[in-house]
Design a protein that fits this description.
This protein is about 40% helix and about 15% strand. The chain is of the alpha/beta class. The strands form two sheets. Strands 1-2-3-4-5-6-7-10 form an eight-stranded parallel barrel, surrounded by four helices.
Length: about 300
C-alpha cells in the first residue's frame, strides 16, 4: 500500500515530489491546472524531465492527477461538455508525459435531470478523451451521493464504464468518506468485505486502481461530502485501521485529502498515523499483508517503480 497525500504542484510538478517527500509520502496527487479555471496546463519538456528526475531520486512511487472539480462530463450544456473534454484530454496527456498511474475524475452530475441520459453523455465525453490520449488510466471516483452526482453506487460506476466503451484503461478510485456517506458501512472487516465483494461482482475487482482515504464528518448515508482528519470522524481509528489493512488494497496508491491539523492538508504526522493504523489493522486480522491477485488499471505501473 502506497500511502500518500494530495500536494500542491506550485512551481512545477517536480516541486510536488519535494512536498510529498517532506510528508513521507509513497504516492502523491496533484491538480494539473488551476482548480478554479478552465485553462489547461501544458507541461514543458523541461518540467517533465525535472519531474521524472525528482521521482527517480525520491521514495515516491506513484503519481495521481486529479481532474479539477469544474468538469461535468454529464452536463446537458454542450459548452460545459466541450470544456470538460478539453480539460480531461489535457489531464490524460499530462498523465502520459509524467508517467502517472491515472487521472482521477468525478464523473459529473445529472443535476435535476434523469440519470440514464446523463450517464450516456458522460460516457461519450470519457470515450473521446481516452481516444485523444495514449495510455494513462482514468479512474472514476465514487461520490457521496449529494444532488445528482453520478457514481454514488457500484451500479452507476459500472454503467459509466460501459457507456464509455469499457476500455481497459478505465478503472475506479474508491473514496472512504464517499463510501460511508453514500450508505456503505465500512467500519468493520465484515462490512468492508461485503462492500468489496459487491463491488467485485458489479464492476470487477480488476477495475480498482486507486484509493482516496478520508474520515467522514457526515454520518452513514448522510450524502455529505465532508472530509475529516484520520480517526477524527465517523469512521474513527478502528474503522480507519480496517480500511487501511484490507488485503485487496495492497499495492494501490492511497491518497489522503484530509483538512490537516493546521488546515493546510495532510502532514507527515497524518501519514505516520495511517501507517500505525494499518499495522494495527493487520495485527487485528491475524495475518500478514496479502498480495493482489489481479492487475488493476495503473496498479502495475505503481508497483514497477517500487521494485
Amino acid at each position: 500500500m502506497l500511502i500518500g497525500a494530495h500536494v500542491s504542484p506550485a512551481g512545477g510538478p517536480a516541486k510536488a515530489v519535494e512536498r510529498g517527500t517532506e510528508r513521507g509520502a509513497r504516492a502523491i496527487q496533484i491538480f494539473n491546472q488551476n482548480p478554479r479555471a478552465w485553462k489547461p496546463t501544458i507541461y514543458s519538456d523541461e518540467a517533465v524531465a525535472d519531474f521524472r528526475e525528482a521521482m527517480a531520486a525520491s521514495d515516491v512511487d506513484a503519481l495521481l492527477i486529479h481532474a479539477v472539480y469544474l468538469l461535468n462530463a454529464a452536463s446537458d450544456d454542450p459548452d460545459i461538455r466541450e470544456k470538460t473534454l478539453t480539460s480531461l484530454i489535457a489531464s490524460l496527456r499530462a498523465g502520459d508525459a509524467l508517467g502517472a498511474v491515472s487521472v482521477v475524475l468525478h464523473p459529473g452530475s445529472a443535476k435535476t435531470g434523469e440519470v440514464g441520459p446523463a450517464v450516456k453523455r458522460a460516457g461519450a465525453v470519457i470515450k473521446e478523451a481516452l481516444a485523444e490520449s495514449e495510455s494513462c488510466a482514468l479512474h472514476l471516483e465514487n461520490t457521496a451521493g449529494a444532488g445528482g452526482t453520478l457514481g454514488r453506487s457500484f451500479h452507476e460506476l459500472a454503467a459509466l464504464i460501459d457507456a464509455a466503451g469499457g476500455d481497459d484503461r478505465l478503472g475506479m478510485c474508491l473514496d472512504s468518506c464517499h463510501l460511508y456517506a453514500s450508505g456503505f458501512d465500512i467500519r468493520t472487516e465484515e462490512g468492508l468485505t461485503q462492500v468489496l465483494d459487491d463491488c467485485a461482482g458489479i464492476v470487477g475487482v480488476e477495475r480498482l486502481g486507486s484509493l482516496h482515504f478520508n474520515d467522514s464528518q457526515g454520518g452513514l448515508g448522510s450524502n455529505r461530502d465532508r472530509h475529516a482528519d484520520v480517526g477524527q470522524g465517523e469512521l474513527g481509528e478502528d474503522g480507519c485501521a480496517v480500511f487501511l489493512s484490507e488485503p485487496r488494497f495492497d499495492g494501490l496508491p492511497v491518497i489522503l485529502e484530509t483538512p490537516g491539523r493546521d488546515k493546510k492538508g495532510p502532514s507527515r504526522e497524518d501519514l505516520e498515523l495511517c501507517r500505525t493504523l494499518r499495522d494495527r489493522g493487520v495485527a487485528a486480522r491475524g495475518k500478514g499483508t496479502g498480495k493482489a491477485t489481479k492487475k488493476s488499471p495503473g496498479r502495475a505501473k505503481a508497483k514497477a517503480k517500487k521494485r
